[in-house]
């Protein structure tokens, strides 16, 4: 009797909960789709601006291309939360947002530049029509999207050989930031794209070819990823076909981005190294925005609400609703912590926009800068603990155990 | 019948929290004290004579001691990024040589005070920066009056300070762990959370051995990278693997349970293979015959991880939490 009642109760409890999960995952996939579609739209605007720069190089067309790049980063950074936990995104992400990079692979760099362990950190494809790479002769007389993606990207198995994506384009627009931990971004002159005698630093036509190829690639990659999240797309199907796995993917994405990636690799490490190259958007000095929109993306996913680039809103049943149903106090804590982090990131952004550049914050002994960054880091670390509590509250630890015999399975929780 | 079920639950809970208690008292506290002692001895050695030959033995002892706790990446080791400051590796972008080169070229007076040196980039501090000063050709033969000698002294003082703080903080943090789930404990809201912290440290530590300590020099078959081995200058990469596996075995034994035969056997197998690898600096990865052994060792470390998650994770009732290496 007892067994029957319990089983029945479990069944009754399970049905509405399952329905909730499906709705939450639909919201999640809808936000992902909208985010990548917005990234695509703004990458196409960047593509037009780059075409204009190459057709008619001038200070104005270069500035317009930079503005387009900055705008393109806003929706894209909000999609980073989809990366960890979704193998389709994680396997692809390196093509569009790889960082940090040894920019000497692409174009000229300052003489004081050093690339660490990378043998091709000074390759300079713009200046060289042929070269040897890992024992193979490479014909780079024409700079095509294929050359970038198939031959140069991650050349020699080194992840710092970033030939494609936002940061390669950023470098081609801004150039190296040689101001160290002082104010100022990269100062590439527009004449780096000028024709004939006006051309500075050589090979302006090839530099333009490179920029154009990299931008075309970005657009086609974003087109592909948008399709993955559309109705019937693989990324959408993966998270919706198994509700528990889907919810785990959401939480994994939030937690891994918060802790290992953003708090650790991207923020704390820069403070501990006092190194301006540890800025995520080091050429453009746009790092504060990258951090802010990453944090906002996490907030979007939990609250099931995303404001698109045209101001329209995608929203629906949220993970917050689901967690609250399981344990109100866990939801309250996590919601509060996510709000807090976004506020700390906003303070960092405000200070940077008012003139206190992110690389200045990283300078040795700059305690105000360190305090601003570490307040956001602490927020990210704290919210990670709450995310772990949400996993437990939803009873999803078992998913981890199921995965424990197949650790190579990318779907296994929290690898 | 009902009562029996409750009793069974209570027993399980006691057994599990006993694991954490044993991990703290028999694993963590001795390891943190051992490292504090070794780092203090290093500081004394450098104070007495800061030239390379005189300092190397104490540096090696401190490194050995560090491997006893390097996997405990939560609580006091994460406070003020201490683990990163003590052990900045891997250094994929060559930051350590660059940062040290900058200090030496400028004869930066920042080394004069402990507080000043604490502001310096972590790439120029800790065990790996010190290794470079003691073993690299760049600094070979530095004399007692040279800037480098003073820098070595500053490094040793800095390490001793961090190590003492870790030991001190762990003495207090041990209470936080023991007190898990009680009112006012914001760090561990339940015993389950403290178990998860230790479990995550264990599996993350195993991953670090397989992916970094062994994976980096292994590279690929066509392109082995002995130059990327850990502590390449002092040639103790294999010793690091062995000592960290022993420390992780110790943690696993305290955490888990008499009933983890698969885990015990997996550790024994890996340690046995490590013992038979011929090259102390793992340069054997370039030799096809020796390479096979290092590859086997890497696989055996991954096998430990499987065994640990099946036996210990299940017994503790936890899965792995997020860790600092979740990023790319």
TrEMBL record, chain A:
Predominant subcellular localization, coarse grouping: other
Pfam family, one: Peptidase_M75
Residue ranges of every copy of the Imelysin-like domain listed in the record: 32-386
UniProt keyword terms in alphabetical order: Signal
GO cellular component, one term: cell envelope
Compartments it resides in: Cell envelope
Keyword Signal attributed: yes
Signal peptide boundaries: 1-19
Protein name (Swiss-Prot/TrEMBL): Peptidase
């Amino acid at each position: 009797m007892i067994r029957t009642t319990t089983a029945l109760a479990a069944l009754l409890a399970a049905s509405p909960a399952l329905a909730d999960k499906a709705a939450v995952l639909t919201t999640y996939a809808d936000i992902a789709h909208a985010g990548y579609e917005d990234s695509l739209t703004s990458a196409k605007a960047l593509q037009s601006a780059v075409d204009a720069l190459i057709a008619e190089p001038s200070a104005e067309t270069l500035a317009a291309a930079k503005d387009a790049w900055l705008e393109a980063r806003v929706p894209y950074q909000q999609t980073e939360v989809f990366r960890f936990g979704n193998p389709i995104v994680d396997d692809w992400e390196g093509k569009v947002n790889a960082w940090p990079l040894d920019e000497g692979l692409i174009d000229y760099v300052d003489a004081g530049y050093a690339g660490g362990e990378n043998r091709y950190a000074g390759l300079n494809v713009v200046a060289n029509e042929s070269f040897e790479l890992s024992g193979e002769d490479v014909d780079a007389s024409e700079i095509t999207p294929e050359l970038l993606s198939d031959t140069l990207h991650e050349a020699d198995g080194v992840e710092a050989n970033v030939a494609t994506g936002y940061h390669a384009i950023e470098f081609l627009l801004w150039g190296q930031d040689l101001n160290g931990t002082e104010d100022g971004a990269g100062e590439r002159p527009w004449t780096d794209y000028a024709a004939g005698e006006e051309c500075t630093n050589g090979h302006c036509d090839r530099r333009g070819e490179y920029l154009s190829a990299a931008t075309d690639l970005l657009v086609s990659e974003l087109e592909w990823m948008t399709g993955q999240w559309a109705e019937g797309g693989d990324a959408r199907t993966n998270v919706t076909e198994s509700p528990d796995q889907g919810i785990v993917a959401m939480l994994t994405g939030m937690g891994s981005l918060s802790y290992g990636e953003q708090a650790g690799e991207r923020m704390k490490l820069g403070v501990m190294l006092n190194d301006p190259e540890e800025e995520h958007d080091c050429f453009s000095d746009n790092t504060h925005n990258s951090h802010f929109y990453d944090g906002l993306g996490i907030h979007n996913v939990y609250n099931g609400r995303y404001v698109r680039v045209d101001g329209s809103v995608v929203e629906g049943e949220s993970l917050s609703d689901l967690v609250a149903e399981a344990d109100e106090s866990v939801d309250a804590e996590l919601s509060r912590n996510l709000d807090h982090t976004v506020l700390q990131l906003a303070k960092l952004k405000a200070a940077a926009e008012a003139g206190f550049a992110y690389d200045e914050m990283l300078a040795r002994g700059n305690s105000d800068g360190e305090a601003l960054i570490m307040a956001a880091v602490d927020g990210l670390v704290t919210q990670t603990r709450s995310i772990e509590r949400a996993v437990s509250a939803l009873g999803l630890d078992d998913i981890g155990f199921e995965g424990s015999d197949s650790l190579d399975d990318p779907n296994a929780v929290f690898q | 019948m009902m009562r029996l079920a409750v009793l069974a639950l209570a027993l399980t809970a006691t057994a599990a929290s006993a694991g954490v208690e044993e991990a703290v008292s028999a694993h963590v506290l001795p390891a943190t004290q051992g490292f504090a002692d070794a780092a203090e001895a290093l500081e004394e050695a450098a104070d007495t004579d800061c030239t390379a030959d005189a300092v190397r033995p104490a540096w090696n002892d401190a490194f050995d001691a560090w491997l006893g706790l390097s996997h405990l990446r939560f609580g006091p080791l994460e406070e003020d990024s201490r683990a990163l400051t003590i052990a900045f590796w891997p250094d994929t972008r060559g930051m350590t040589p660059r940062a040290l080169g900058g200090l030496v070229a400028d004869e930066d007076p920042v080394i004069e005070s402990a507080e000043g040196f604490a502001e310096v980039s972590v790439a120029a501090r800790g065990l790996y920066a010190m290794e470079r000063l003691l073993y690299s050709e760049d600094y070979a033969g530095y004399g007692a009056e040279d800037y480098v000698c003073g820098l070595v002294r500053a490094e040793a003082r800095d390490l001793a300070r961090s190590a003492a703080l870790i030991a001190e903080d762990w003495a207090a943090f041990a209470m936080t762990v023991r007190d898990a789930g009680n009112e006012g404990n914001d760090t561990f809201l339940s015993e389950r959370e403290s178990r998860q912290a230790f479990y995550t440290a264990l599996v993350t530590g195993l991953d670090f051995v397989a992916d970094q300590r062994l994976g980096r020099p292994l590279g690929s078959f066509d392109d082995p990278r002995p130059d990327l081995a850990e502590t390449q200058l002092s040639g103790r990469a294999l010793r690091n693997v062995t000592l960290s596996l022993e420390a992780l075995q110790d943690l696993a034994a305290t955490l888990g349970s008499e009933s983890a035969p698969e885990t015990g056997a997996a550790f024994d197998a890996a340690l046995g293979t490590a013992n038979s690898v011929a090259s102390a600096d793992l340069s054997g990865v370039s030799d096809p015959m020796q390479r096979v052994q290092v590859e086997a060792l890497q696989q055996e470390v991954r096998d430990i991880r499987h065994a640990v998650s099946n036996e210990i994770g299940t017994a503790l009732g936890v899965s792995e939490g997020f860790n600092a290496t979740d990023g790319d």
